[in-house]
Fold:
Amino acid sequence: MKRSSFLLAGFLALLASAAQAADYGYIGTNNTSYDATTSWSDGVVPGATDNITGFSTANASITLSTAAHSINNITQATASQVNTLFYGGTAGTYNVLGTLTVSNSASLIFRGNGLSLTLHDVVINGGNLDIGGVASTYTGIGNLSQAGTNSITLTGSSANSVLSINVTNSYSLGALNFDGSNSKNVYLDANTNATAITATVAGLSTADGSSGTTRIYGSQDNATAASHGAHNVTLNINTTGANTYATSAQLIDYQPTVNSNTAYTNSVLSVIKSGTGTQKLSAASTYSGGTIVQQGKLVVNNATGSGTGTGAVTVSNGATLAGTGIIAPTAGNNVTINGTLAPGDTAGTLTFNLSSGSKLAFGSGSTLSLTLGTSSSEVSFSTAGDWLTGSGNVSLSLSLGTGFSYSNTYNVFDNVTTTGFTFASITGYDTNSYSASVAKVGNSYTLSFSAVPEPSTYALFIGGLALFILSRRRMAATFRG
Structure:
């Protein structure tokens, strides 16, 4: 009986050992098969529970000769080394179930038109992750996705961190996180085909204390010929739930690296804020495709330039535009509020640097939300001008904070010459005791309050008036008699 127990225990231990993840390094030569046992240390092709710990052959392209692959973790950390995983078929899949790490100025490339790549957590620590083959060939991959609530982190203190994406179809990723003191660049579409795509991310986040310039480009001109046309890329920032993300990343149309042909320089990046969460932007951005706040809140806190690029800005019904930054669309581009405009990040001034032909336009049913108190919020314009339209469409909603006083006057709009602008209603204060009014004073619209007399005061006044009238009538009757 004891012998059987020992045998069973040994068998179970063997099974457990076999099920444990193992580490394998690529030892094959250039253009050899990923699926050949001779390509890997220990003569075993790594599986879904295994890890790829390195590539011993510099600049080797590794062929994925079967259609489906899964791996646990991948680490590419050999200094300045480039390796490529290539699938030449029409319907291949490669799933990284754990963490993909690229560091130490190394590069890892996935390419092949028929390849669908699924990622979980990704860390780029002073390395290059090239999804689609930007650095070597331009065939790209077919599809890209990231599972669950995983993220991509670009970090490091010396070498730059780069994420390049060349995907035929629109794709979705988790949050893009930025940390460290190095420069960090993301290319959302490095495809040479002028195909419009949407890149959806769960949020953009820059860690406290992070330095170095972070740039997110809509596209990258990395082709060897100037024949391709303009790219139209949409960055959809889909922050869900009550999540708040804040980033200092600059959002830019494109980066020309090889050719600056006219067609390519017409490439544009557009931004959509979707999802019920909050995204904060604190950098000056130059993207020109416009900004649509569809859901949740977009908070613009840049100190210079324009936090929303140079295009038009539209806030949909139910969504909110807020912040203490600067919004500076080019001439003729409007900022249209169909939802809520809430200047300040709790409190503060949101500045609009508008040019000729541009307006801050309030749609029917829109709301201007102000905090009043020792720290108040207001809307300001960089230069005086006729900037407002939509009089009578917008309601003024007040939040009374610390230090608020009904005896004070508060700015609503500053540096505006528009006359006759009115609000559909004013709410959020003691309407039983006070009345609120907005008036144009110089180049500002200001809010003030007046006390409403108590009902007893009205009664005494009316009673006194009645006695006065009765007394006069009696006097008149006496004189007539």
Q: What stands out?
A: Confidence is low (pLDDT under 50) at residues 11-18.
